[in-house]
Amino acid sequence: MSELTKEQEILMVMRKVLASIVKDTTPPPGMKHPLTEQTIQDVRACFGLISARERELADEQGRVVEKPFYTDQRQEQSAEVVPMSSIRRPEKD
After folding, report:
1. What is the number of structural domains in the chain?
2. 76 located within any domain
3. For helices 37-61 and 6-25, what crossing angle results, to 10°?
4. Residue 54 in contact with residue 63, Cβ under 8 Å?
5. Of 13, 17, 24, 79, which residue is the least packed, with the fewest Cβ within 10 Å?
6. Per-residue pLDDT tens over the stretch 3-37
């Protein structure tokens, strides 16, 4: 695997710091958010720009960028998960 360029390192740190700020400032449900709606939209735009540039750099290097996914999303896999309840012991003759 190739080492990250300085720009890739900067983007990664910026994404992590921005995510930490979002986590630290997100209030419990029902409470008013301390950031203005415009600031929230600006943060989203920053995440979008960081992500787009990371994708461009990965494409230039021929790297595949892994996309985040929800745990309940079905992923393209070469194997299929078989539920334990469908496994039976073979009947004795």
Report:
1. 1
2. no
3. 150
4. no
5. 79
6. 889 999 999 999 999 999 999 999 999 999 999 99
